[in-house]
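User: Could you walk me through two proteins back to back? I'd like the raw sequence and the structure tokens for each, with a short line separating them so I can tell where one ends and the next begins.

Assistant: Of course. Protein one, sequence then structure:
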Amino acid sequence: MSKLINKNCIVFDIDAAEKKDVISVLVRELDAAGKITNQEEFFEDVLAREAIAPTYVGFDMGLPHGKTDHVLEASVAFARTARPVVWNEETGETAELIILIAVPLSEAGDTHMKILANLSRQLMHEEFRESLRSSTKDQVFDILTEVLEG
């Protein structure tokens, strides 16, 4: 699963007012990398999933995802925001590290669960989260590639 992340899909210092702005930037990068078929439709799919329940997972992290026919191949995009962005409107919890997961509908169960399992094992560890906060783009690419190959 090492092809899940593309260096161009790692974006730092997003200056966003709302989570939809962060998601929009990441969707644009996935589109530019040729991972999705329709930028607007996939963006709407991800927002629809967020409307069901915010994907705030604690530790200043958001894990938005879309499992739709608008995804050509399973992919991950990563963002580090310039300042915290409210990720759960009900609780006011904020996120600074965002990992957008894009999975074709046909792989919704298997691939999505494998990506989540690999990420979840690491997200609990402060040193992992800190490395995502402080590393260069190349380092974040290497870190996420290693985790996602899990």
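----
Protein two, same layout:
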Amino acid sequence: MWIKFSKLLLTIKNIALLGVGIALCIALVNSLINLGIITWANINGESTYYNLIEELITFFLYFEFIALIVKYFKNNFHFPLDFFLYIGITAIVRSVIIAHDTAFDILIWAISIFVLVCSLVLVKKYIGHDE
């Protein structure tokens, strides 16, 4: 009985994750279109590089989440830890670029990125058999 219930929950989770993956693909295409529009506006001098970089990093966040979902299905329904660290680093970099907080806040964000990078190195060294 518990095995059937567990399989049912896994199936529900996989269907939900598939739906999230489809939504992320749509958002990725939308972000790519926006990236093209902003790039064209930059060429014409109607936009700033700040907007271009913000949209580019948002694009990479969508891309990383889609890659995480693909890895989940390829790794027999397990999420690889290193992908979460990549997403965390990218999200913090995006936050630093967009927020422009005080110098102390940026220092804290930089320390956070350093901790995540160190964690990534440790994961790759000691657990790095996700392939």
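The mean pLDDT is 89.

Let me know if you want the two compared in more detail.
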